Amino acid sequence: MDFHHVTVLLDETVDAVVTNPAGKYVDCTLGGGGHSKRVLSKLDANGKLICYDQDALAIRHAKEIFGEDERITLVNRNFEDLEETLKELDLLPVNGILFDLGVSSPQLDEAERGFSYMQDAPLDMRMDPSSSLTAREIVNKWSEENLAQLIWKYGEEKWSKRIAQFIVQARKVQPMETTGDLVQAIKAAVPAAVRRSGPHPAKRTFQAIRIAVNDELGVLDRVLDQALRCLDHGGRIAVITFHSLEDRIVKDRMKSWLGRCTCPPELPICRCNAVAVAKVLTRKPILPSEEEVEQNPRSRSAKLRVAEKI
Questions:
Q1: Distance between CA 308 and CA 310 in Å, rounded?
Q2: Model confidence at 102, in pLDDT bands (50, 70, 90)?
């Protein structure tokens, strides 16, 4: 399979993170290798790049494109293991870390992975094919109440209750095996007038199930403080998010690094001893240019936030 992937906010992200050509940098979301390739182009012979991806396909592709480049280390693990692996590799501290939280285009385009509502495929959606929870299990085994909560919480889908109800009705007739089965149930649940306007009716539900299968928000929540600890002073962390749930986690965490007092206003003196550990370099997130959105519609919802350790 051709692992072609159009990298989002490429220059903006790499320019923000790479400040020292001889430094050590981490790409936590290797994917098609777009950001990694650009980072390597900015490093000299002493620079190092460590790339994480839980998808063995991405690692295999990277071995092909980066060949024998000794500056690069490939890690086939979830970036949740960031601090642990960097310790094992004796590479701490590093000068910059970047995260591109979008599903890579090859994962979306490879039908049998089951990420896309545009192609009929087995209900899978695992980024790490060795993990146990699949979309099929969620769709066929979870209660109607839990499905509705999931679709509302992670998909922000206002028809969540009705979609959950239709999924449960459909699976009573026969188990749901493919993304096509799921799309059919969603389309039946969403009123025709709503289906005719706005995005694909299955978009938010598929997002919600994918997030749950891969514990995406939990992993993100657990890795951000780790990433900051892994940075050298003056090192930078850049995160590209693709929906409001991710962006909120990143925005709130970076805000917490500013060391602002969190004591109740009625306390006469500060007792939380808040200390600033980073400064946020993006007062507002950096968005893709109109030109980029035109060339790559998938970049439309991307937001980049950058912080520097102090």
A1: 6
A2: confident
**Does domain 131-214 sit in CATH 1.10.150.170?**
yes
Q: What gap in Å lies between CA 68 and CA 65, rounded to an integer? A: 9
Sequence-ordered list of residues with C-beta below 8 angstroms from that of 125, at least 6 positions apart, any chain: 113, 114, 115, 134, 135, 206, 209, 210, 213, 214
**CATH topology assigned to domain 10-106+216-309:** Rossmann fold (3.40.50)
Distance in angstroms (rounded) separating the CA atoms of residues 136 and 167: 12
Residues 6+ apart with CB under 8 A from 165: 144, 148, 189
Q: Edge-to-edge strand order for the sheet containing 278-280?
A: 72-75, 48-52, 24-27, 94-100, 231-241, 303-309, 278-280
* Distance from C-alpha of 16 to C-alpha of 19, rounded to nearest angstrom: 7
Q: Which amino acid belongs to residue 149?
A: Q
Show Cβ contacts of residue 212 under 8 Å, excluding neighbours closer than 6 positions. Answer: 133, 138, 150, 154
What Cα–Cα distance (Å) separates residue 85 from each residue in 129, 255, 284?
21, 27, 32
Residue boundaries of the structural domains of the chain: 10-106+216-309, 131-214
42-64 pLDDT per residue, tens = 999 999 999 999 988 889 999 99
Structural Rg of the chain based on CA atoms: 21
